[in-house]
Amino acid sequence: MFGRSLAQRSLTVPRPVVTTAARRLALAALLVAACTTVLPTGTASADQGDGLRQITDGQGRTLVLRGLNTSSDAKGASGLPWIERRNVVAERQNLGSNVVRYVLQWKNIEPSPGRYDERHLDEIARRVAWYRQQGIHVVLDMHQDIYGPYACKGAGDGAPAWATITDGLPCTPQDPWVLTYLQPAVLRAYDHFWNNTGKHPELMQRYVAMWKHVAARFAKDPAVLGYDLMNEPFGGSKQFGSFEGPVLTPFYQRITNAIRQVDREKWVFVEPQALGVNEGFGTSLGQVRDPRVRAAAAKLLQQNAQRSGTGLTRLSDPSSRIVLAAHFYPGGVDIGGGYTGVMKALVQGEFVLWRQNMTAAAKRLNAPLWVGEIGGMDFSQPGAADFTRDWLSMADDLRVGWAYWSNDPSAKGSSETYAPLDREGTLTQVGKVMARPFPRAVAGVPTKISAGSGTFTVTWRSSRGVSGPTEIWLPATVFPGTPKVKATDRTHRWDPANRILSVWNDQGRTTHSITITRS
Ligand code: 9MR
């Protein structure tokens, strides 16, 4: 939730009110407090990810979803990102992306109450098709920052003007931008939205109905994998325990129920509140029940009435398609500090906290874990490559996917610092580190993903009802020639054009392993 440097912002904001040194000091204090009170003893074990549920495809394979967030113009008036078809092609070729978190805004979809802009939805569908042509899954992300542009003099994105009720309270955009969340007008806009004031229940109703409309529009689009219900929810005057459990969870449940009336298949991505949780604190989000489970259970009960025996428990869990889409912004690096010395130690503390808290939450919620945003680091700062490698390794270790924030090369002066690809589709400094092998689909449950220098290992165990091969993407930067393969299973095929190695499970074998080295 801590934002990018001012240089990356398109907004005009007043002079910084907090110095970088003061921010770093405050953050360091926060981290020290967090680490001394909440840090578990020892580092997280490599098995931390075991027991996490997985996002699966139509063939039952585990999808390890890795790619980028769209940004930039998608935050602006048009609500559409800067990309062209060729950028999507370059992303797939150079980064191997198999997912995009595609930024949408409520204001562009429902410009006036109950009236949806179908032309805008068509424009989105046109871009979704570019991803479909590249075999990249799309997660539609209903984005918001600081409620929307009408809460604080244009300093945000998300809600339409008609849904922004500030009661005339004052507002001054702040630097860093996240402090704008605390301005009186912004707090009031959220309080009305969540009906904390008891005066505007219609706002949440409209949001739910808007999602139902969007889901109906994309239900049959095979590229759309799922719906991210709200970016980085903020509770206004209610936070943590008084927001996530009592307000946010039932709200997600309402949207999920509405979506399931028009779409029973796609995945629903729910986010914890951003404040604190993005930096590693725990979440008290409650479990969102997927109505498709009830439908499946009802069907089974019917079958059981005809036969004898049970089996309900076998069926109920695999049918739920709710994903915990947490964000990760280790505070120190995101506000401009390097990844060295004390700062590095503190940020590593956040890695441990985040890993511990988010895997625990995912297990509690019975949901797969996906990093909907991982915040990049300014590559002019020391240790940026190490930081990038460390979060990539954490994701490998947990066998979870991620969407990097972001693909935005337009921010002045920063095209070589944050975005992995420039406008021509060439890998930038961070892009060169991020272009590393990963198994985009696994024919079973992945038990290990491990990238070394010039070598890559994946292990997995079979699971019932899975068909199709395990597919591993190998970047040309790491594996320039035909890769050398050592595998437990006999059948594999190398596709040099798409840089994908496919491996089919040998029949009867339950555990599988493949190690790839440079030829
Ligand atoms: O990086 C974005 C920054 O340039 C913008 O000023 C800011 C407000 O629109 O949003 C930043 O992106 C944030 C994203 O929308 C939500 N998660 C945290 C991102 C980084 O701060």
Task: Write structural notes for this entry.
- By secondary structure, the protein is of the alpha/beta class.
- It has 2 domains: 66-300 and 316-434, TIM Barrel (Alpha-Beta Barrel), CATH 3.20.20; 436-518, Golgi alpha-mannosidase II (Immunoglobulin-like), CATH 2.60.40.
- It has 13 helices and 17 strands.
- The strands form 3 sheets. An 8-stranded parallel β-barrel has the order 2-3-4-5-6-7-8-9. Strands 1-10-13-16-15 form a 5-stranded antiparallel sheet, with no helix packed on it.
- β11 and β12 (455-461) form a beta hairpin.
- Ligand 9MR is lined by residues 1, 3-4, 8-9, 75, 145, 157, 177, 231-232, 373, 375, 405.
- Residues 436-516 form the Glycoside hydrolase family 5 C-terminal domain.
List the helices and strands and how they pair.
Blueprint: H1 20-38, E1 62-63, E2 66-69, H2 85-95, E3 99-105, H3 106-109, H4 118-133, E4 137-143, H5 184-193, H6 201-218, E5 224-228, H7 244-262, E6 267-270, H8 291-306, H9 312-319, E7 322-328, H10 331-334, H11 341-365, E8 369-375, H12 384-398, E9 401-405, H13 429-434, E10 438-442, E11 445-452, E12 455-461, E13 470-473, E14 484-487, E15 491-495, E16 500-504, E17 511-517
Parallel strand pairs: 2-3, 2-9, 3-4, 4-5, 5-6, 6-7, 7-8, 8-9
Antiparallel strand pairs: 1-10, 10-13, 11-12, 12-17, 13-16, 14-17, 15-16
Helix pairs in contact: 1-11, 6-7, 8-9
Ligand 9MR is lined by residues 1, 3-4, 8-9, 75, 145, 157, 177, 231-232, 373, 375, 405.
